[in-house]
Automatic annotation (TrEMBL):
The active site is at 175. Residues 7-166 form the 6-phosphogluconate dehydrogenase NADP-binding domain. The keyword Ribosomal protein does not apply. The keyword Acetylation does not apply. It catalyses: glycolate + NADP(+) = glyoxylate + NADPH + H(+); 4-hydroxybutanoate + NADP(+) = succinate semialdehyde + NADPH + H(+). Belongs to the HIBADH-related family. NP60 subfamily. Catalyzes the NADPH-dependent reduction of glyoxylate to glycolate as well as succinic semialdehyde (SSA) to gamma-hydroxybutyrate in vitro. May function in redox homeostasis and play a role in oxidative stress tolerance by detoxifying glyoxylate and SSA generated in glycolate metabolism and GABA metabolism, respectively. This is Uncharacterized protein. Gene3D superfamilies: N-(1-d-carboxylethyl)-l-norvaline Dehydrogenase, domain 2, NAD(P)-binding Rossmann-like Domain. It comes from Carya illinoinensis.
């Protein structure tokens, strides 16, 4: 596997994939890209990337291929469908799925890749569009240790810290736990902003007070101001946050963990999707809290 040779394939050029592949190019990697909507490859090609016509073509060309896809269904399709990864994966080739999926999806992909002699790690990430652009992601890897170690030069470009978490599934679970907490916090902030305004307080003052206390955090600092301004340009699409809440709740079901706060947050994200807000930033869940306030 040649991640250390600075050559890599990249499947999926959405908000995250585009930023990550661009970053690899900027740092001297040769990158061969593929995206379902092929026109999204154009900007990467202008920046020096090559195109693979299919996932299989990318894997055929590259010893190691990274994927950054929307959800379990996309991750499975790119591997198992016609012209997919499985058609060319073989001994000596590595596949790194950085999409946020559940452990079951990751295990299915791992079994298929390794049964053909390939090597697999999952490596979902914490951090959004800006950290992806700046190489400041937090990488939550699990699976074959040797591939993890060979991927470190690429991970050092993409992230500020990588964790190796052991067997396949642990990276997916860690990512879902983190995003479950994040989704609940976003709902708490939304309710706090509505409560502040409705009870006569200045929401900007609330943000200043939060930022000086024990619950100060980068998410409140970054999203609070744009929420007050009703601005939801997508960094992390709401539909993906709802997917992560759904998958985290399923993990809770499997482990008999009661998560009423996360369940309520999931309902708010579902409501937001039903209001047509799925492609906006996940902070647009604030709009559902405002609607509920106006109905009461
Ligand atoms: N945005 C963020 O802040 C973060 C996102 N993530 C996770 O990273 C992953 C990607 O997120 P993001 O870049 O924001 O998402 P986007 O919605 O911007 O991009 C999704 C990508 O998946 C592709 N895709 C969707 N369905 C299929 C399919 N059936 N077959 C092939 N390709 C498909 C899209 O292709 P096409 O262009 O053709 O639609 C696109 O390349 C998700 O799992 C998300 O949860 C993780 C951390 C942060
Ligand atoms: O999955 C998305 C995570 C977004 C973030 O960590 O800021």
């Amino acid at each position: 596997m040649a991640v250390e040779e600075k050559e890599v394939g990249f499947l999926g050029l959405g908000i995250m994939g585009k930023a990550m592949a661009t970053n690899l190019l900027r740092n001297g990697f040769k990158v061969t890209v593929w995206n379902r909507t092929l026109s999204k490859c154009d900007e990467l090609v202008e920046n020096g990337a090559s195109i693979g016509e299919t996932p299989a073509a990318v894997v055929k060309k590259c010893k190691c291929t990274i994927a950054m896809l929307s959800d379990p269904s996309a991750a499975l399709s790119v591997v198992f469908d016609k012209d997919g990864v499985l058609e060319q994966i073989c001994s000596g080739k590595g596949y790194i799925d950085m999409s946020t999926v559940d452990a079951d999806t990751s295990s299915k992909i791992n079994e298929a890749i390794t049964s053909r002699g390939g090597h697999f790690i999952e490596a979902p990430v914490s951090g959004s569009k800006k950290p992806a652009e700046d190489g400041q992601l937090v990488i939550l890897a699990a699976g074959e240790k040797a591939l993890y170690e060979e991927a470190i030069p690429a991970f050092n470009v993409l992230g500020k810290r990588s964790f190796y978490l052991g067997q396949v599934g642990n990276g997916a679970k860690m990512k879902l736990v983190v995003n479950m907490i994040m989704g609940s916090m976003m709902n708490a902030l939304s309710e706090g902003l509505v409560l502040a305004s409705t009870s006569g307080l200045d929401p900007w003052n609330l943000l200043d007070v939060l930022d000086l206390g024990a619950i100060a955090n980068p998410m409140f600092k970054m999203k609070g101001p744009t929420m007050i301004q009703n601005s939801y340009s997508p960094a992390f699409p709401l539909k993906h946050q709802q997917k992560d809440m759904r998958l985290a709740l399923a993990l809770g079901d499997e482990n008999a963990v009661s998560m009423p706060v996360a369940a309520a947050a999931n309902e708010a994200f579902k409501k937001a999707r039903s209001m047509g807000l799925g492609d906006l930033d996940f902070s647009a869940v604030f709009e559902t809290v405002k609607v509920l306030q106006h109905q009461s």
